[in-house]
Amino acid sequence: MNPPRVFISYSHDSAEHKEWVLEFATTLRNRGVDAILDQWDLQPGDDLPHFMETQLASSDFVLIVCTDKYVEKANSGEGGVGYEKMIVTSTLLSRIDSNKVIPIIRQSGTNETPTFLKTKLYVNFSNDSEVEYSLDELLRVLLNSPLYEKPEIGKNSFKPMGGSKPDRVADGIKAVMIAVSDTYDSSSEPFVWFPHILKRTTMRRLTFDKYFRLALEQGLLHRSGGQIWIQEEGIKYLEKHNIIE
Questions:
Q1: Is 104 within 8 Å of 121 (Cβ atoms)?
Q2: According to the model, what pLDDT value does residue 220 have?
Q3: Cβ atoms 33, 24 nearer than 8 A
Q4: Which ranges in the chain are annotated with CATH 3.40.50.10140?
Q5: Is residue 237 predicted with pLDDT exceeding 80?
Q6: What proportion of the chain, given as a percentage, has pLDDT over 90?
Q7: E strand or H helix at 7, and its extent?
Q8: Number of helices and strands (H, E) in the chain?
Q9: What is the arrangement of strands in the sheet containing 227-230, beginning at the earlier edge strand?
Q10: Top-level CATH class of 161-240?
Q11: 141-179 residue pLDDT tens
Q12: Does the pLDDT value for residue 90 go beyond 50?
């Protein structure tokens, strides 16, 4: 992967600030970023507007180092900072994504940015003791190496009703077991009579016989003549389906 090309915009507030920006740009280059800085790339006699236009337009990211003076100059459109603002807000943003413009907070005690950057998230470099944390946050964006990788979306676990048929067998067996359970409620014996169960269901006789036979085969019920005994598996079935508590 080619290193990201990053243009650094700042104001020449003081010698100390220029030195900080130079060290900042040097660190970025040492960490795999092609940082573009006027202190390296602009020579006496070069055309300032042409330099800004070409470098801004060819960059993958633009880092705006915000200080009180930078904010003041950008908002009033003064000097080189004002010219860069004009390019960033018009020509440049028509060529690259607006989220490629990243404010860098350098001033202490405030996080003010130029008006045209008010809605953007920034990276705070105002605390020198936490510069490595700030660098890590910035570099992960520039190098497309997020701390957390967004997981893939899983498959839909639901099926449309039209694509899944009702389980008539399970429903039929459940209806039989409900009838058996209701019949037990009125019986004082450890068994119930088959004709009494038939009175507890609204199913047709042949349909009932079909699902009753399946309940026998699954070991839920036991038949001895006309006597019907509920088995241990049948008790578990009734509990599982909340037919009995």
A1: no
A2: 92
A3: no
A4: 5-142
A5: yes
A6: 32
A7: strand 5-9
A8: 10, 8
A9: 192-193, 227-230, 221-224
A10: mainly alpha
A11: 999 888 888 888 888 777 666 555 666 777 888 889 999
A12: no
- Strand ranges, E, within 59-174: 61-66, 101-105, 123-124
Written as one letter, the residue type at 72 is: E
pLDDT at 202: 83
Longest dimension (CA), the chain: 113
Q: How confident is the model at residue 79 (pLDDT cuts 50, 70, 90)?
A: low
Task: Look at residue 169 in the predicted model and tell me its pLDDT.
Answer: 76
What type of residue sits at position 207? T
Amino acid letter, residue 61: F
Distance, in Å, from the CA atom of 128 to the CA atom of 134, rounded to the nearest integer, reads: 9
DSSP 39-86: HHH--TT--HHHHHHHHHHT-SEEEEEE-HHHHHHHHHT-HHHHHHHH
Q: Which residue has the tokens 């008010």?
A: 118
Angle at 122 between CA 142 and CA 3, to 5 degrees: 10
Fold of 5-142: Rossmann fold (3.40.50)
What are residue 229's DSSP bridge partners?
222
Q: Give the CA dihedral 139, 141, 145, 149, nearest 10 degrees.
A: 140
Outline which parts of the chain fall under CATH 1.10.10.10.
161-240
